[in-house]
Amino acid sequence: MPTKKAAVAGHSAPVRPGTQPRASSRSSSSEAAREARASAGRRGRAGSGFPKEVLVDRPALTDDLLAEHRACITSGSKFGTSVVKWLATKSPEQQAAWIKASVAAGGVAFQPWSTEILFVLALSQRARFTELQRLLGISSRTLSDKLQMLEKEGLVERVVYDERPVRIEYGLTKVGARFAALATPIYCMLVRNAEEAGR
């Protein structure tokens, strides 16, 4: 039976008369990706998953702190732009390796409950297990697992006092304290964005 040619995604493939050309998987993937982005945009405009109720009792930053925050975000944005330009000079393989390593390095710190623990310890300096559990409203199993992970990553330290009964407290290492300090402007920016989006 004779066939005719049909151009599909830049290539020619034989198509039998009376049938429709089949789109390539690459074309289908691109269309699916576009639809996913459009769907995400519609969801974002309709209302994100951010729990607006958490903003009710949040104390507002002072004007001085807001000005300091703007300067910090500007400085961070300049640094980010410089890193992107630097990465642009690298090969695709090097870029992928850098991104993969960066995401892996932040994997533990940005997991659920990890950031909350780090922020609470940044505020309290030292805290017992039961104090952390009460402040966070987290199960003992989850808190124990997260503390072990953060301690293994060098972000949290476990201090055992030679007392009877034994007293154990948790605090931030220098790296953990630095992370909490550097993450604060990012979270402030995200919260302000959520506030503005809800107006």
What does it look like?
By secondary structure, the protein is of the alpha+beta class. Among the domains are: 62-105; 108-199, Arc Repressor Mutant, subunit A (Orthogonal Bundle), CATH 1.10.10. The protein contains seven helices and five strands. It has helices at 25-46, 63-88, 92-105, 114-124, 129-136, 140-152, 174-197, and strands at 4-8, 11-15, 126-127, 156-161, 167-172. It has a three-stranded antiparallel beta sheet with strand order 3-5-4. A two-stranded antiparallel ribbon has the order 1-2. The longest helix has 26 residues, at 63-88. The protein is globular, with a radius of gyration of 25 Å. Mean pLDDT is 77; it is low at 1-29 and 36-47.
